[in-house]
Amino acid sequence: MLEKNYTIDQIHNLTKIDKWFLYKLGNIVNVQHDIKHAEKLENVSKELLQEAKKKGFSDAQIAAMLNTSEDQVRKVRKDYGITPFTKRIDTLAAEFPANTNYLYTTYNASTHDVKFDDHGTMVLGSGVYRIGSSVEFDWCGVSAIRALRDLGYKTLMINYNPETVSTDFDECDRLYFEELSYERVMDIYEQEAAKGVIVSVGGQLPQNIALRLHQNDVNILGTSPVSIDKAEDRFKFSKILDQIGVDQPEWKELSSAEEAEKFADKVGYPVLVRPSYVLSGAAMNVCHTHEALHKNLSEATSVSPLHPVVITKFISPAAEIDVDAVAYKGKLLVHAVSEHVENAGVHSGDATLVLPPRDINDHTMGRLKEIAQKVAKAFEITGPFNMQIIKKDNSDGETELKVIECNLRASRSFPFVSKVLGTNFIDVATKALCDTDVPEPVDLMAEKKDYQAVKVPQFSWTRLQGADPFLGVEMASTGEVACFGKDKYEAYWSAIQSTQNFRVPKAGGGILIGRDDLTDDDDFIAVANTLHKDLGHPLYTSSPKVTEYLARHNIKATTLQLPENKKALHQVFENNNIDFVFNLAQLRASQTADENYVARRSAVDFGIPLVNDSKCARLFVEAVKRKRQEISSQTPGEHPSEVKSWSEFIGGKFC
Amino acid sequence: MYNNFIRSPSPVRRVSSILLSRVQPSIPKVSRGFHKTTASTTRRIFTPHTPTTPFQNSSITPSLGAFTSPYLRSFRQTTTRISYHFYNTTAVQHQEESAHKKVVDETRDLIFADVPKVDVKKVLVVGSGGLSIGQAGEFDYSGSQAIKALRESGISTILVNPNIATIQTSHALADSVYFLPVTVEYLTHILERERPDGILLTFGGQTALNVGIKLEQMGVLSRLGIKVLGTPIRTLEVSEDRALFADALKEIDIPVAESTAVSSIDDALAAAEKIGYPIIVRSAFALGGLGSGFANNPEELHSLAAKSLSLSPQILVEKSMKGWKEVEYEVVRDAANNCITVCNMENFDPLGIHTGDSIVVAPSQTLSDEEYHMLRTAAIKIIRHLGVVGECNVQYALNPKSLEYKVIEVNARLSRSSALASKATGYPLAFVAAKIALGHTLPELHNAVTKTTTACFEPSLDYIVTKIPRWDLSKFQHVNREIGSSMKSVGEVMAIGRTFEESLQKVN
């Protein structure tokens, strides 16, 4: 608003923000005006550039104002000798020496507080937590630092997220509480004359600057950023998969709507529209019809014009598998195969994972390992990587395996697989990255375990007013939990109860059950049958159509009118003692009057547990059935069998 | 500034006995007072502790509990005849109240020597579970710090946390880990199985706190003889219950922001009369902001409440403090009553936006010296009165045009703000809080930055820190995009700079 020449007083009256802050913002805007006024980089004086840096302008910001490149600004700035100073945090008013390794950089200083003779190894952290990148990458970062320190290397962490352990100054030799931008990382790397940089444990953010760092002579440890780029670019990636004989769904790079529609007509709907360089599926969508595709193309293509948009044949229904692995110079060291409970189409971050799987046969397990080996070799991977693979059993008994995604970095399931299998994948990866004490390859999946663990997503629907509690190709969960058990039913039983606001249905409580035309009939009937006949819950639906459908399968249900008024709606839930909601609809609600949206959202608003996927629903009702039987046969005072410590399950300690 | 570090001239061996003898005379009268009253608030206080499961002393850390707060103290001595005279309003009790207050005032600033260490060998730490909006990575950080502190003291630790992606769920930190739900049922099973001597409830966010309070109310902790380390349960209960909390702060003349839940127009008008206009009305059910609004007089409130109540069965009536500054203090207190404010923070945007969704700067930049010290003194008074043993966060609303202020909230546990304050100052709040829970005092703990001086210091920063939240609302359909009193951000970043401009732009 200052840019639009509002006065400080006007803004203060509108916002009540203290004028001190507004005057400071005014200072920033003034510098911005000065730079814009200079028009060209050559016209920017050393003093102005210095002033801009002191006011916190990044090279990229300055470049954007002057229509030049960040590298140009960086070069001019360094020629002027304008570089940041490294300071220790001083909280003692200089009364005592602040001998800390907690550092930051600033242009408002005249000396460095530290000497640069460590030549440590840099680890780039996860940056801000967001949907798709969260505490799991903090675990990866901290695991990498600890592994480096064990190997005797000096460590240097860069991260700027205050909610993390990686920004705890007792975890590393030097902590730079700094943003993970190319400019800052480059400054610190040059200043510290660091040995190398690990970019593969902090999620997508460090990965995004890897190639530029590499092009500017930064020593990136492990897999070459050129390979990373090949894997990130769907076109290059696909070409390599073709070369090594690994199957993938039919896809096409998109340049015009006509071509896209022609391609979709050829391979048949549904199709998946997706841009490259995404982490949790921004603008990604499944299109079931010609019209839906047309609409979505316009939305998806505007996301990242630098990277092309791709449409892929969407294989449905099919199972999805996550492979997490570590390789060394193209050779597979360890790998983990986790099975998704949900069908393909639910974002892997929102999926329920089972490890080790018991429903994949040895032959398929062997083929999965082979794919991992081929990919590791083709991309000359050193370090962590992750793949998502579609598994479809054909009527002829053949199993098709198609790779849909590959990231040459640690994925969000690394802590899960490490802790379930009792081998720290990041520890292995760090040794591979440093080319020190690299362990021999071992097939962790060949060892049979007497337990299974299930990872379940945690959503924050209650906080997001109005948001549709629906699972799709866009990731929506904010966290995850995982529990162990003697089998997946027991593990799921504890895991789902670990999620916020969840509780198991009370005996005899009413259950609202819903579906749409795409819901799997088998699943729906199985869930309704178990709930009604085995577990004795009265069933309710929100549409006569569903009630009739259930009646045809000899399942009794009552249709409820769901009124629009929230208060009346709450009354309907209360009157019918609705205690649990299963909504297994497959299509996203296009408007808020949609009965399935109303059912899902009401569950969240009224604090009633919701299950919104048909495969999860099946697993859940089966788990309830088994557990209710178990509990009834227990002697009083006996603890349920899932109440065991982690080391009792995995048979040892894990660091 | 260092007044509160001065130890009492003569070492006091047994803190509690001295204090208890001081307050002894008031107890019988107080009990009488209780029998007379039928105030609903008083009932609410008592219902959790039925006569069959009396509140056991053993479940409060002996001699580490709150001794400056009369209701907590009386709790200690009487089990079933406990009383809270200050909730009563008759004239007789008013006298007792002031008599009692005098005792409180006298004891408030005393520092005690020779606080015994808590005798525990095995401690269970309750984690926060899966990350969600409002309860995110900060609890991995605080839990990890707590476990590090316990480990350093040679105490064996058991951790319950189903969040498998965390750093705390590792045997490098905890001796034993349970990946199980943080619920009363599962914790009871684990406690019965492991039989720890102590439990830490303040490092796992709201989840751990709620479960801990329930475990106490159900008598599980006392049955198994498990000590609650650090801040006593009673203090946690008071800080969590709006009515109890408001009454407790009234006792020491600290103003509280009041919020009343009503379900009829008449009740709304009555509540507003008590609170004073202007009023803000919020609906108890999430309706996309429908039914919320401001009212400057009874007429406006009447029509607003009528509209809101047609949409939601319950509405909240609160005093409007539009345009007030929002300021937080992080305070630490040990069992010897040493008390410091580690950090204060100021929101860039005024009251109305959830702190989690606000741009926050540390230390505060726009407070006058008088304002700063007024709120600092109040924070210390509050934490001492409530009897927090460990870390505590106090949120204030401050009228920019006068010295008027109100306490919005007190979190008697580690919070997102405390994680931010730790990073902003380098002062490891969770680590220190865990050590304090074991009976260490601030002067004997080390300053983590210098490693040579004491932890009993108030950091003074020669830099400025800015935090900016991150939202991810584009991932959702039909979601309400306005920010307000309910937190929606999924993460945050912080930057350190030497001017506000630098620090703000670095984080941007």
TrEMBL record, chain A:
Any Gene Ontology CC annotation: cytoplasm
Keywords for this protein: ATP-binding, Ligase, Magnesium, Manganese, Metal-binding, Nucleotide-binding, Pyrimidine biosynthesis, Repeat
Catalytic activity reported: hydrogencarbonate + NH4(+) + 2 ATP = carbamoyl phosphate + 2 ADP + phosphate + 2 H(+)
Record-annotated ATP-grasp domain positions: 238-434
Every MGS-like domain range: 502-655
Annotated EC: 6.3.4.16, 6.3.5.5
Keyword ATP-binding: yes
Gene Ontology terms for molecular function: ATP binding; carbamoyl-phosphate synthase (ammonia) activity; carbamoyl-phosphate synthase (glutamine-hydrolyzing) activity; metal ion binding
Database matches in Pfam families: CPSase_L_D1, CPSase_L_D2, CPSase_L_D3
Class of the enzyme per the UniProt entry, highest EC level: ligase
Biological or metabolic pathway of the protein: Amino-acid biosynthesis; L-arginine biosynthesis; carbamoyl phosphate from bicarbonate: step 1/1
Name of the protein: Ammonium-dependent carbamoyl phosphate synthetase
UniProtKB/TrEMBL annotation, chain B:
Protein EC: 6.3.4.16, 6.3.5.5
Keywords: ATP-binding, Ligase, Metal-binding, Nucleotide-binding, Repeat
InterPro entries for this protein: ATP-grasp (IPR011761), CPAse_ATP-bd (IPR005479), CPSase_dom (IPR005483), CPSase_preATP-grasp (IPR058047), PreATP-grasp_dom_sf (IPR016185)
Cellular-component GO terms for this entry: cytoplasm
Pfam families registered for this protein in UniProt: CPSase_L_D1, CPSase_L_D2
Domain of life: Eukaryota
Stretches assigned to the ATP-grasp domain: 246-438
PROSITE patterns in alphabetical order: ATP_GRASP (PS50975), CPSASE_1 (PS00866), CPSASE_2 (PS00867)
The keyword Plastid belongs to this UniProt entry's keyword annotation: no
Catalytic activity, as annotated: hydrogencarbonate + NH4(+) + 2 ATP = carbamoyl phosphate + 2 ADP + phosphate + 2 H(+)
GO MF assignments: ATP binding; carbamoyl-phosphate synthase (ammonia) activity; carbamoyl-phosphate synthase (glutamine-hydrolyzing) activity; metal ion binding
UniProt cross-references to PANTHER family, sorted A to Z: CARBAMOYL-PHOSPHATE SYNTHASE [AMMONIA], MITOCHONDRIAL (PTHR11405:SF53), CARBAMOYLTRANSFERASE FAMILY MEMBER (PTHR11405)
NCBIfam families cross-referenced by the UniProt entry: PRK05294.1 (NF003671)
Protein name: Ammonium-dependent carbamoyl phosphate synthetase
Organism: Rhizophagus clarus
